[in-house]
Design a protein that fits this description.
There is one protein chain. This protein is of the alpha+beta class. The chain is built from twelve helices and ten strands. The chain has helices spanning 7-27, 57-74, 78-84, 89-97, 116-127, 131-150, 153-164, 279-315, 327-355, 361-386, 397-406, 415-427, and strands at 170-173, 189-193, 196-207, 214-220, 229-235, 241-243, 257-268, 272-273, 317-318, 321-322. The strands form three sheets. Strands 1-4-5-8 form a four-stranded mixed β-sheet. Strands 2-3-7-6 form a four-stranded antiparallel β-sheet, with no helix packed on it. Strands 9-10 form a two-stranded antiparallel ribbon. Strand 2 and strand 3 form a beta hairpin. The chain is globular.
């Protein structure tokens, strides 16, 4: 049994997961037109970038399960989901059957009870199959964790089981049209009226908006600033809840993004997470984990892109010789691999710090998000460059990895904000 998995749940899942892991050992990796081979598995991967290095045997087992799910259930559909903007609900619910709907939620409400490091390993592996879909999974997991940690027992029992099974899908609602990086200035208001809050305002860039079932909403119940913010769970179908048009995006096209609008929505006080005024703290704690999650998604994209570039260099000829024989391109590949491993180590170190609730966890999560998303985008971009004109064609997966992770430098706190957080930590010493 994998450490941390709920024993009854894992006994049910183990035969299927073991079979998937075994198949993964034999042929892990994505099959993609024009050279996408063995991206997720261990066969054919140089040991210096092997993502299983340093992991326990248990971690390697669920990493194999995640890689195999990415190879079989996600990668074959990645391009279609992107082109047709399909939200693959059934696929992500199958991921939930493997415990990926509530990875770091406690087992008594259906979660897998794994650590932040375990979660990072899983999201990195899944992202080799589809970054966009995995990124939505990471957001959903963050919402489920918020309910698990900050909700009362009745709230945990009411919401978490259906979130962990992904029978119900969740969205995180913090950003507003006028408050992005300055989240503490949000204007969405919730005024107390007996046993309800009357919610008014709007949120922007909400992943899953309109297609999901629960909305974890940060709103103003008190005065200006962070201490006036509370957190409410709003259910789809509530009168006054509506959605904007689906946004047209550069990447992340397998998950819908819409504005979420509240017009006199009556939300029960019983749906408030934590106490009044605690919402900003809940939001920030969620984002610390979210930064690790999104950095992990970037790692998976970069890992896949390096292997795509490597395979292209080994078959493409120019000036009568294989590209792999040109020293300049060898140096570029070596630098990409070095950046990937450095980013991975930084992300995993931050994940351990967050799990241990260390004082430096916030700064380390910010550093990891900053470094990993910047470096992994550079890796994917360089991999596209190595493909030449072919890299710019949608028949080649490398361009989608590059497009999908570009937004990672913006969301969960822009990388400029990450620098502010790190600098502030240093200057307060």
């Amino acid at each position: 049994m994998l450490r941390g998995f709920h024993s009854r749940t894992w006994k049910l899942l183990w035969p299927k997961a073991l079979a998937m892991a075994w198949r993964g050992c034999c042929r892990l990796g994505l099959r993609w037109r024009h050279g996408w081979r063995e991206a997720g598995g261990r066969r054919g991967i140089a040991s210096c970038i092997d993502p299983s290095m340093g992991l326990t045997e248990e971690q390697k087992e669920f990493q194999k399960v995640a890689f195999d799910f990415a190879a079989k259930e996600m990668a074959p559909h990645m391009a279609e989901w992107d082109e047709k903007e399909i939200f693959p609900v059934e696929t992500i619910r199958r991921a939930a059957q493997l415990g990926f709907g509530g990875i770091y939620v406690r087992p008594d409400v259906g979660g897998s009870g794994l650590s932040r490091l375990d979660t990072s390993i899983i999201f990195e592996a899944l992202s080799t199959g589809c970054v966009s879909t995995t990124a939505y999974l990471s957001i959903h997991n963050m919402c489920a964790w918020m309910v698990d940690v900050f909700g009362k027992e009745e709230q945990r029992q009411r919401f978490c089981p259906s979130l962990c099974s992904m029978e119900k899908l969740a969205s995180y609602c913090l950003t507003e049209p006028g408050s992005g990086s300055d989240a503490a200035s949000l204007l969405t208001s919730a005024k107390r009226d007996g046993d309800n809050y009357i919610l008014n305002g709007s949120k922007a860039f909400i992943s899953g908006g309109g297609d999901t079932d629960l909305y974890v909403v940060m709103c103003r119940t008190g005065g200006p600033g962070p201490k006036g913010i509370s957190c409410l769970v709003l259910e789809k179908g509530t009168p006054g809840l509506s959605f904007g048009k689906k946004e047209r995006k550069v990447g992340w096209n397998s998950q819908p993004t819409r504005a979420v609008v509240f017009e006199d929505c009556a939300v029960p006080v019983a749906n408030r997470l934590g106490e009044e005024g605690q919402g900003f703290n809940i939001a920030m704690k969620g984002l610390n984990g979210g930064r690790i999650n999104i950095a992990s998604c970037s790692l998976g994209a970069a890992h896949a892109s390096i292997l795509l570039a490597r395979d292209h260099l080994k078959v493409r000829k120019q000036f009568g010789d294989l590209l792999a024989n040109y020293q300049y391109l060898q140096f570029q590949l070596a630098e990409m691999a070095t950046r990937l491993v450095a980013a991975r180590l930084m992300v995993r170190n931050a994940a351990r710090a967050l799990q241990e609730e260390r004082e430096d966890a916030v700064a380390l999560c910010s550093m990891a998000k900053l470094f990993a998303t910047d470096e992994c985008f550079a890796i994917c971009n360089q991999a596209l460059q190595m493909h030449g004109g072919y890299g710019y064609l949608k028949d080649y997966a490398v361009q989608q990895f590059m497009r999908d992770i570009r937004v990672h430098q913006i969301l969960e706190g822009t990388n400029e904000v990450m620098k502010i957080i790190v600098a502030r930590s240093l200057l307060q010493e």
